[in-house]
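REQUEST ID: PR-0412
SUBMITTED BY: lab tech R.K.
PRIORITY: routine
TASK: structure prediction, single protein chain
INPUT:
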Amino acid sequence: MNEKKLYTLIVHSENIAGLLNQVTAVFTRRQINIESLNVSASSIKGIHKYTITAFTDKDTIDKVVKQIDKKIDVLQAHYFVDDEIYYHEIALYKVSTPEFQSTPEASKVIRKYNARIVEVNPVFAIVEKNGNSDDISSLYNELRSLNCVLQFVRSGRIAITTSCFERVNEFLADREAKYNTSKEIRKNE
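STATUS: complete
OUTPUT:
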């Protein structure tokens, strides 16, 4: 049996209503829990990028990506392991200002994790941390142990590949070349 590990899927598509539901349904049918999901515009006009993380095995992730890739509005879908991508998350921690100020250890913890305080008022302070999931969780656990956390939220993973090119750019260039070739053939007939 294959070992489960965290995979990051990057899906490029046109911005079509309902496509997110179709993509997540592939995971639901296979009873795979999505760990994080981020959807945003990509660097290519009109193209959106889905970054999805899930714990599963290699055989299952292969099948999931093939199913997603078959969706009519999906341009491309690929999966990656952590050493093939650069990834990042962001987290916000709302901490009690009185508790925070009365605990000198709290500011040491903030500095230890290279977090920053982005808002302070008499009732609460907002701490922001960018980085990997483990550091974000560790900072949360340390602040929580100091009894000063009022709220906590984190983003889904965002990721880019470590390769020198974006696969979807090649796909789109190839599609454009094929379109121009067929257009030229029809013109000459």
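NOTES: The chain has a mean pLDDT of 87.
REVIEWED BY: pending
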